[in-house]
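Blinded run. Sample ID left blank on purpose so nobody reads anything into the name before looking at the predicted structure. Input follows.
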Amino acid sequence: MKLVFASNNKNKIIEIKHQLPPEIELLSLEDIGCFEEIPETAETIEGNAILKADYVTKNYGYNCFADDTGLEVEALNGAPGVYSARYAGEAKDANANINKLLHELEGKDNRNARFKTVITLNLDGSQHLFTGIVEGKITNYRAGDKGFGYDPVFCPGGKTLTFAQIPLEEKALLSHRGRAVAQLIQFLKK
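Blinded prediction complete.
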């Protein structure tokens, strides 16, 4: 089975390829010749995942899936949420996003947060959504050199290491994206 993953984020592609069984061939947007920026204008994480999947299906005709992820911080009323990638501006600079987040949390005792990933699958004319959530805390400083995005400051519940310190295999079992991908795989195997 060939499936397009509506992303050019090489880190996400590596994480997801690592989880997929060998009978599913993963194609990136680059593989299908899609080089334009797909609009992410929805007000929700679910909405953005749907927009991206629908864009690929409509314009390229492929069965595909797309994801959107947000970091929701309790003390910031759920921010950055749907704006996680652009929290510090349109440049989508992970370091600037982390700097802004740590600055916003200065002096706050409540550092509870959760990562939420929604995957939209467009398959043979029908649409399915899968949601993965992981609860955790925002650390006071960066730790680790694995992962991407907010991984260096997110410590999943029950762990003392950030996602950026955890090996990919373990992260796949714990993470929001890993949980959503596991649901996607289970659905595709039916």
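Unblinding after everyone has recorded impressions. The chain has a mean pLDDT of 94.
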